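As promised in the previous annual report, we have extended the structural survey to additional targets. Below is the entry for Tetratricopeptide repeat protein.
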Amino acid sequence: MKFIIYLTLLIVPGSFTLASGRQDSASIRNKVRDSLSARADYYVLMATFTSAIKPADAVKSYKKALTTAPVRNELWEADVRTEIGKLLFKLKKDEAIAQFIKAESLYKKQSNLRGRADALDMLAKIHEKKGMLTEAQKQYTDLYKVHMEAGDAVFAGNVASHLSDVFFRKKNYDAAFSYAAMAKNSYERVCRRDSLGAIYLKIATIKRIQNKPKLAEYYVINKALPYSSSADDFKGRIRSFVFLGNMYKDQKSYSQAKWFYIQANTQSRAINDTSGIINSLLNLSVVKALIGNPVLAKRDLAEARALAKGTPYSGLTEAFNDRYPTLLRRLGLKDLAAVTMKKSADPGDLPVQKLLIHDQTISPSSTLVLSD
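The corresponding structure token record, generated without further manual editing, is:
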């Protein structure tokens, strides 16, 4: 009995000592981890404060946060790498691509759709800017799918609409139509009427270029205009009227073209859209001259010039002068016909919203009708 007691006294204290040692060791490790985690938080905080004014320093701080402590979790790392990628993109560094690729992979593992969308959007934009269309197309397509999976049908439609624009500029009209149809399907899921009006007008533009005027007319009159009207989208209605006016003008149906330009002018005045008023007046001056009403044509042109003078839209009338010299000579405005468009009045300086109307308004093919 005494032996057992002595043995117990010998063993138990030792056991207490070992257990205490293990606890102290775990405590130390926890304290070290907490200390490193706090340091990582400090670096992230410093990066946040300096990102706007010193992006390069912010990148260094974020990278220190990644290497200072064991990564807390993959979402935290993905968020940090996304911020690094955005700063590197701002600094025009190619390393941004690697950061976004890694972030997108981590988000995908964690089924984080919002994070994936953010990373894919940046990757697609970078590759598009670099002219790497194949890579950009793949990432935009993945982005479309992610938005649809997340239930963001409007964002998905916007991505498809952008791809349609990309291929339209490349004159790949079949691909442009396919992506426009994808955008239409996305917008229809949530009945986004203003977006549906815009995408149907885009589809009509493609069909017009593919020499399918009847189909183009159908999409505008039966789809684009009704959706724009039901959404109270005045800009959309103006674009549709301008589109139809241009199409009829190209077909030499000048009376019909005039009617649609008058509608565009009326709508533009209703919302006090100066650029829309100027454009519609310029269009009206052309068709009135073609119909044989030079006095009315000169009146519309004079009003357009008066509205544009001393405004950011003066480039519209100067571009008109440059593009329609024959018309101006026939109207007895030889001084305007001799003036070439000044670089300082480049229409490219105008807002994109205005240029969409301007591009459809002054058509090079229309000059041929008036040539001597």
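DSSP finds 19 helices and no strands in the chain. Residues 241-372 form a domain with the Serine Threonine Protein Phosphatase 5, Tetratricopeptide repeat fold (CATH 1.25.40). These points will be discussed at the next consortium meeting with the crystallography subgroup.
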